[in-house]
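user: Here is a favour to ask of a fellow structure person. I have my own habits and do not want them to colour yours. Could you put it straight underneath, so I can go through it closely?

assistant:
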Amino acid sequence: MSAQPAGVALNATHDPKLLSWVESANVPGGDFPIQNLPLAAFRRAATREGFRGGVAIGDQVLDLAALQALGVFQGAAAQALAACTGPALNALMAQGQTASGALRAALSAALQAGAPLAQRLRALLVPQSAVEYRVPADIGDFTDFYASIHHATTVGRLFRPDNPLLPNYKWVPIAYHGRASSVRVSGFGVHRPLGQLMPPGALQPTLGPSRRLDYEVELGVYVGRGNELGSRVPLPEAEAHLFGLCLLNDWSARDIQAWEYQPLGPFLAKNFATTVSPWVVTLEALAPFRVPWMRPPQEPAPLAYLDDAATRRAGAFDIQLEAWIDSARMRAAAVPPLRLSHATFRDSWWTLGQMLAHHTVGGCNLCAGDLIGSGTQSGAGPGEAGSLLELTGGGQRALQLPDGESRTFLEDGDRVTLRGWCERPGYRRIGFGEASGTVLAPAAA
């Protein structure tokens, strides 16, 4: 292997020379080589089968419930595998990273080219094209952070040109409590929400459908081991309470948000839908793509409970993020989607560990399967903005689509697709799959 990031433990599952007997996993540039092994909850499409755990390998899903029935794993790997047979992955998440690491090691050994189990496991593969997914966990709570300083600055400048960042931003990992019940897996449609709107110059608001519907490019992270109410998780222990990452689209109704967000923040502007990708990439799989967490020297250092040497050394992840759009008319004419932006999570103002440590510092209890959003991830450049609000200057500059249409915000029929991946010289590229949703007309009463 090439030199690893300082302070990060790599093992045999990260070896870039590993190949799989599942040939599609060996295709260069794919999302799901044997070095990835992300997890999802799936079933065969158009059936009444129960959802159960699956692992992505190339263009296939390995059925973990069927694998457990074979009884070929032993010890900690077998215990972790047994936690993947239900309709959600909460039980596996609750076992912690030692258990998921044991399962990952056993799966890697079983899926390697030349593995003795290859013939028995081949019958347990289901093509990804033939399955459907559910949200990987039963999400008890959803907290969405605001961790990109580039996003916060650009959006703040639209409303406060002379003072875009509020005084607390550089000190506090800002977040709000989202709505867990409306989190849906990739592929579900998103109805345009209704809410109160205050037209310019009007004396009172009206009720109507949002005309400034937007997306937000985010990462989601699922909590693994929880903590008790009244306890807090110190920063050095925070990542041990995280299970894995997904893509997350925090759909946002900007006109509803503008009227309602003061003094308590977003409500109807956010609670109508959140889209997540089906695959959960474990923190262990991301180990080769850790990078130092740094801030410019002129910026204030975090308070002590949010700062330690390990975080500075390798607390950030270099995850590439993209947003794509295609309209109903583009799809009808077979016009390929348009890439709207490309940014990287390494620019995040706060790390995942810092977010969890702050979340619990007052004694808040987190539970296995809880979802944490990173907030919109934007970079400093004009093509790195993670929302239409930024890309269009608050709706002042229309974007041109390849078929001649233009957009300031989303129209009915528009489909937004998020993609993410990691790559680094000396290691296999790993991906997150997609988080896709299509805007639908407002739901009937």
